[in-house]
Amino acid sequence: MNENMWKPDRQAKTPIYRQIAGHMEGRIRSGEFPPGSVLPSERKLAAMLRVNRTTVIQAYEELRSLGLVERAVGSGTRVAGPAAGTVKTPNWRQYLESGTFLPNVPAMRRIRSELNVEAPVIDFASGELSADLFPNDIVRKLLQERPYSGYLGYDDPQGFRPLREALSRFLRRYLNVEASESSLIVTSGSQQSLFLITHCLLQPGDAVAVEDPSYCRSLSLFESAGLKVLRLRADRREGLDPDDIVALHRRHRLKMIFTNPNFQNPTGTVLSAERKRRLLDVAAEWGIPIVEDDPFSLTAFDGNVPPPLRSMDAGGQVLYIGSLSKIAASGLRIGWLAAPGSVVSRLADARRQMDFGLSTIPQWVAAEFLDSGEFDRHLRDLRLKLAYKLDSLRVALDAHLPGETEYRVPEGGLNLWVQWRRPIDDLRLFEQAVREGVVYVPGSVYGSDADCFRLCFARPRLDQIEEGVVRLSEALRKIAGPTPS
Amino acid sequence: MNENMWKPDRQAKTPIYRQIAGHMEGRIRSGEFPPGSVLPSERKLAAMLRVNRTTVIQAYEELRSLGLVERAVGSGTRVAGPAAGTVKTPNWRQYLESGTFLPNVPAMRRIRSELNVEAPVIDFASGELSADLFPNDIVRKLLQERPYSGYLGYDDPQGFRPLREALSRFLRRYLNVEASESSLIVTSGSQQSLFLITHCLLQPGDAVAVEDPSYCRSLSLFESAGLKVLRLRADRREGLDPDDIVALHRRHRLKMIFTNPNFQNPTGTVLSAERKRRLLDVAAEWGIPIVEDDPFSLTAFDGNVPPPLRSMDAGGQVLYIGSLSKIAASGLRIGWLAAPGSVVSRLADARRQMDFGLSTIPQWVAAEFLDSGEFDRHLRDLRLKLAYKLDSLRVALDAHLPGETEYRVPEGGLNLWVQWRRPIDDLRLFEQAVREGVVYVPGSVYGSDADCFRLCFARPRLDQIEEGVVRLSEALRKIAGPTPS
Lengths: 485, 485
Hints:
2 copies of one chain form a homodimer.
Chain A: H1 16-29, H2 42-49, H3 53-65, E1 69-72, E2 76-79, H4 92-97, H5 106-116, E3 122-123, H6 136-145, H7 161-175, E4 184-187, H8 189-201, E5 207-212, H9 216-224, E6 228-235, E7 239-240, H10 243-252, E8 254-259, H11 273-286, E9 290-293, E10 318-323, E11 335-338, H12 341-351, H13 360-371, H14 374-400, E12 405-407, E13 415-420, H15 426-436, E14 438-439, E15 441-442, E16 452-456, H16 465-480
Parallel strand pairs in A: 3-14, 5-6, 5-8, 8-9, 9-10
Antiparallel strand pairs in A: 1-2, 4-11, 6-7, 10-11, 12-13, 13-16, 15-16
Helix pairs in contact in A: 1-3, 2-3, 7-13, 8-9, 8-12, 10-11, 14-16, 15-16
């Protein structure tokens, strides 16, 4: 046995334990380790491959779960016994290729795999707040001073009633949105609202319109559901043009329009009041429901919250989605959907087949938080800090990438949408940026804007922002040479 | 206007606010209230219909969400204006009939609507613990003494790592199941594990085998996913016969077997060690994965936990599902799936399109709870109390339904599966029982056993058990006459 012949590749995307499992599987199947033989001990293999023992344990567990080896305390890891020749282990690979859910976009998986590595990558990619912006102290205080002592059984799948009542007050007060508790369903973030709408109200083959560029996770979701996704060009100044919808509808019979009118992800634009009214009129005229995704309105840095479509919707056209993920903490997993009561009932019923509703504990935390004066203070503080981070990013871009980029400064949201001034190979630059230790979302992930990219200024710590831009400029220099003068 | 002409029906299944909305909608559409006219004030209509003002507000909100009326503070509720004739409100009814998710079984919806009413119905239907069996004090103490102060951002969609580590220790210690944290995914109860497996590993048209009778919620789930559900007859003494699988597989090419071998729901049977081994052999021989749903093993009243299939599975055939719902508290929404690492990764990736994982807070509570000595004490206490409740139910059945029923006394689980000795109209009896103020699950909901029914003895309070059986015997007497002597 010459273990020096093979070593795991630490640069590869496959986790090391899985590389080791694959390697050992090959050696078992090749007959090097016949049925019943004992594999090298965890300690020995770890030393030979220069990895942690836990990594070898994971690899051997993987082989065990595939039915290739048996493991018993004291007697080590053995190649599966006499029966191994005749046993048909389920062909998991084939099962993994089945299923109605499509895997997520490769670039997003790549970003995640980078973020899972221990090396300190600066993260402009994840669309969320940094840990210091979460209301950690408030949540800890709530848990401590008023620990949940309510019912711990199955809750109404429409959501914990005190939270729905708190949300109804919150929506009226902060967003001028009228929604009674009976017309609200609490969801695991905006994502689950989108998921429920997609699977309960639409069918494979249905045509839906989305902004281009738009929120990239929804694209996988729509494609998994077999929807025909049509793109509405959103210009960088004004967002989508409602009149484009008519032409699209005439050709494709739109079943739904998905839009994020305020501080749109990724462009940051706010649809003007005039375009909002026109959008509602067009939707009303043709009877097309609008799904309004509204995660960012309350981040408006100056406190002037742009009105959601839903607050202007007299005709009941709008299914309204919001969440605490971008304005408080994504780990609470609290989102909501305001919709006609019959729609809410249908979605709550379907959910009994999916997850049976959310835990009452974070719902209770959210209700207490929204009803406390703490939320108001938290929000004011958050706006100041977000504006300051955005400003730091602009200063860094101007200093370290002079003449290379163009952008419009948004008045809210978590993201800066940046355009390169010269032609750039989007994915090659991204790979180089990863090597320099910085990640962001390349424009091609969102649709057709490969000359753009999204920097989430909320996610890195304040002290990482400049260094992140320095790394990005280094990546650009290596791929495309110095800035042309 | 003669409001005396119509009143909401307080006995009807439709919520009162929705009855009022429907009534007012009819009057608007009939032209009684033309566009622009003002509807009766909330206070006035409430007085006329003798309902709470909040009920009228809900009704008017429903009309608003349907686009039929406009509401503004100070100017009341108006029928939608001049545009109302041309505006096409989305045809929500049509959307509600779309979607890939089938509504749940009518009898289950009926049970839930009864339980939502304020009247004190005795509940033998919900398959869960009564509130006094939850570890309320332990959870409150945990929240108070060690309030969560960890990261509040997006978590690994595979689940909070400290919980996966705690689960790995827990499964080894209590169930003799070896599963590393990397082979576990934390889910929102067993339901979400089933949902993920169904949608990520199977395709419409795939044949799966389930026990008959079996867990009724999974049937809707499977049908929504377009699976071909084949029933494996489970006899009341010994459960399913593994040799039946071969014949079924030859005809239908089974893609998966779903089973609940320990304290099966609803029958309470435990598959013998011999049948378990045979089941694993058959599955291995034909390469068919088994999904083992194991919510009840730890409830074994005498503490002799029957071994899960997964603990006997050398060949990696078994996807193993468990949860805290039946042994601690369903409202925590903590379940898990142990599976090969590649399967876990696929499911965790798909989940980013669904709910983006669970809140960290209940996951942290669960981890602390499992790692504390409190879990052990809780479990011993739970077993005693469950056994005592079951005993009370038996005594009550023998006293109040003498000669009418037959059952085998289970050694664990939450349910007693009871057979009527004489022919009974299953659903007619159920309707009568509802009128008497008691609910349970009629056998026909589970499959083909319309002469049986399930009583969950864990759910009613101890002091309700006898009264519940008295009400049931009253229902039987009214439907079928006195016990034949």
